[in-house]
């Protein structure tokens, strides 16, 4: 095993549905570039329709790009499918297993189609479905079906695991169980690429992540790097009789009656200044709350702010110079 090896490499990736450029087609992926190192968990985030699934399907070799390049283990996953498929595990957004089969029958059938499959009882155990082995797929709950999808993706001991919204429909406990399993897989050296709508999931699992909007990556980096692109916030309520104009802050504050909100890139400095002033002036700041931006706040701002959505569809088949903010100083970053 090659530590630091880039097992997924994507550059200028494009995917168009329908007729080619100039006609009625729709370009869902518009020049996406990133790479994932062996053993990393990489999360693709974005609002509905941002292009996550369209991108992941290209990596899984389910379709061929209309532009750009994708390599998994250095191979084209579509044209060199036989070299790539045995080494990857795929959990699609909807598994679509025959509903009349039981869990065990499904697993046996799937194991029969998987090269080097491990005993299926092991994977059912790992996802907590061993006791449901004799239940028909159609009788499983939504969350149990998701877990069956995951179990089948794990059958071939994949080196790279693609998880498309793996915990959608799971309750809080099921979600945490899945996170634990994914972490264990990473510890065993598995590389994971996941899409998710749960920011907590990305925060919990991802070594690095990318936020997509309208077919492009708008920001990428570690969760900490992504949140650091957004200002921190200090909130408090001024006591009666203390006008906001007396505040010493060098950064602008939003004032609504007695409520004050300060947004700053230098949280410690602004907070120190504020607290020293409050002590000097003997002012008690009520409901004082100071915090860095959360991934959720960063996501909501990044995913919804205008810009890329309005960019013309150039259709030039490869450019990734799309204003993407890249936060990758540590070697394995999205590129
Ligand atoms: N087969 C298709 N034909 C035409 N357009 C499609 C097709 N599949 C997806 N699209 C469009 O491509 C865009 C991206 O879809 P995609 O499913 O990749 O987004 P996503 O980020 O995975 O969304 P979600 O979070 O809802 O799963 C959407 O506008 C979608 O309507």
From TrEMBL:
Pfam families: ABC_tran. Keywords: Antibiotic resistance, ATP-binding, Nucleotide-binding, Transport. Residues 8-239 form the ABC transporter domain. GO terms for biological process: response to antibiotic. The keyword Nucleotide-binding applies. One of its GO terms (cellular component) is plasma membrane. Signal peptide: none annotated. One of its GO terms (molecular function) is ATP binding. InterPro entries: AAA+_ATPase, ABC_transporter-like_ATP-bd, ABC_transporter-like_CS, ABC_transporter_ATP-binding, P-loop_NTPase. The keyword Nucleotide-binding applies. It is a peripheral membrane protein. Residues 303-335 are annotated as: Disordered. It is found in: Cell membrane. Transmembrane segments: none annotated. Its main location: membrane. CDD domains: ABC_DR_subfamily_A (cd03230). This is ATP-binding cassette domain-containing protein.
């Amino acid at each position: 095993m090659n530590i630091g090896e880039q097992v997924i490499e994507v550059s200028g990736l494009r995917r168009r549905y329908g007729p080619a450029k100039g006609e009625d087609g729709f370009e869902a992926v518009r020049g996406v570039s990133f790479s994932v190192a062996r053993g990393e968990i990489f999360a693709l985030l974005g609002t509905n329709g941002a292009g996550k699934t369209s991108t992941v399907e290209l990596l899984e070799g389910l379709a061929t790009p209309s532009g750009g390049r994708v390599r998994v283990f250095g191979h084209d996953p579509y044209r060199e499918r036989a070299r790539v498929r045995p080494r990857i595990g795929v959990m699609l957004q909807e598994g679509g297993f025959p509903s009349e089969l039981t869990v065990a029958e499904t697993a046996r059938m799937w194991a029969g189609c998987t090269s080097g499959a491990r005993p299926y009882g092991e994977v059912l155990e790992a996802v907590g479905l061993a006791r449901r082995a004799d239940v028909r797929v159609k009788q499983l709950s939504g969350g149990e079906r998701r877990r069956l999808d995951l179990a089948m993706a794990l059958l071939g001991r994949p080196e790279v695991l693609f998880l498309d919204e793996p915990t959608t429909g799971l309750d809080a406990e099921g979600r945490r169980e899945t996170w634990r399993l994914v972490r264990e897989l990473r510890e065993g050296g598995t590389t994971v690429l996941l899409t998710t709508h749960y920011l907590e999931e990305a925060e919990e699992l991802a070594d690095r992540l990318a936020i997509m909007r309208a077919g492009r990556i708008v920001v990428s980096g570690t969760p900490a790097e992504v949140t650091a692109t957004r200002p921190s916030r200090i909130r408090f309520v001024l006591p009666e009789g203390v006008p906001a104009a007396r505040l010493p802050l060098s950064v602008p504050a939003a004032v609504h009656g007695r409520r004050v909100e300060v947004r700053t890139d230098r949280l410690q400095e602004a907070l120190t200044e504020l607290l020293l002033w409050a002590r000097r002036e003997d002012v008690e700041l009520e409901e004082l709350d100071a915090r860095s931006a959360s991934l959720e706040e960063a996501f909501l701002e990044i995913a919804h702010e205008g810009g890329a959505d309005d960019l013309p569809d150039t259709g030039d088949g490869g450019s990734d110079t799309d204003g993407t903010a890249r936060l990758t100083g540590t070697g394995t970053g999205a590129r």
